[in-house]
């Protein structure tokens, strides 16, 4: 394998499991705004999407100021209680260590960069990544295609392997003319990933490891 291979990983649903953290933070914000909480299992379908869009969908409101206060409330809980609620997928550390021997690992998440770094620090895996990229708190770089284009330009990358669990990750890879692997152990279904145009599907962390180690 070429030592210059770049592996660009989505964070939530791909490297880390935020299955209780994100829904609890959404409900915290909803409660603070007098909106009835939503069952955690139903909220998991929102993982991987922009918070503003999530709150707009749940509350059926479009008022930017209101949505911003929801996002601010979400982050209030996220940075205090949400970080420790993140878990690593079993086997992911070994996968990252093996991949790091063959290339450069980069995180690309629409989560704010500061939040990404806090999660990775808490889980003790930040050092495995050459770079960590997220959105800005202002909302800039809040779409996956915009973020990937920014990363590739800044890092001087012409082609990278994109790994993610949602269709938006795969669609962003296609827009950047990069190959992709969709992971269906996260929050997107195999059907969603295939419909978005994933080149390969990994249903488990073990399958993802095989895909990465056999990709030139």
Note down, in words, how this protein is organized.
This protein has 216 residues and is an alpha/beta fold. It has two domains: 5-17 and 87-213, 3-Layer(aba) Sandwich (Rossmann fold), CATH 3.40.50.1000; 21-85, Orthogonal Bundle (DNA polymerase, domain 1), CATH 1.10.150.240. It has helices at residues 21-32, 40-43, 51-59, 64-82, 92-100, 113-123, 144-155, 167-175, 190-196, 205-213; strands spanning 5-9, 16-17, 87-88, 103-112, 131-135, 161-164, 180-183, 200-202. Helix 8 links the parallel strand 6 (161-164) and strand 7. The relative contact order is 0.17. The mean pLDDT is 95.
Primary descriptors:
six-stranded parallel sheet, Rossmann fold, 47% helix, globular, alpha/beta, 216 residues, DNA polymerase, domain 1
How would you summarize this macromolecular structure in one to three sentences?
The chain has helices spanning 21-32, 40-43, 51-59, 64-82, 92-100, 113-123, 144-155, 167-175, 190-196, 205-213; strands at residues 5-9, 16-17, 87-88, 103-112, 131-135, 161-164, 180-183, 200-202.
């Amino acid at each position: 394998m070429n030592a210059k291979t770049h592996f660009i990983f989505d964070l939530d649903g791909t490297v880390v499991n935020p299955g209780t953290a994100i829904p609890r933070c959404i409900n915290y914000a909803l409660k603070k705004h007098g909106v009835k909480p939503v069952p955690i299992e139903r909220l998991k379908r929102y993982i991987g999407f922009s918070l503003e869009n999530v709150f707009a969908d749940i509350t059926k409101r479009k008022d930017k100021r209101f949505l911003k206060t929801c996002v601010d409330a979400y982050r209030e809980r996220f940075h205090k209680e949400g970080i420790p609620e993140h878990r690593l997928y079993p086997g992911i550390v070994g996968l990252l260590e093996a991949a790091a021997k063959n290339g450069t690992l980069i995180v690309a998440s629409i989560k704010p960069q500061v939040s990404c770094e806090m999660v990775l620090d808490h889980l003790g895996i930040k050092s495995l990544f050459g770079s960590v990229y997220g959105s800005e708190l202002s909302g800039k770089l809040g779409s996956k295609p915009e973020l990937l284009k920014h990363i590739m330009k800044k890092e001087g990358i012409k082609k990278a392997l994109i790994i993610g669990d949602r269709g938006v990750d795969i669609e962003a890879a296609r827009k950047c003319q990069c190959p992709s692997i969709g992971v269906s152990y996260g929050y997107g279904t195999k059907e969603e990933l295939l419909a978005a145009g994933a080149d390969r599907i990994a249903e488990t962390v073990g399958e993802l490891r095989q895909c990465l180690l056999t990709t030139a």
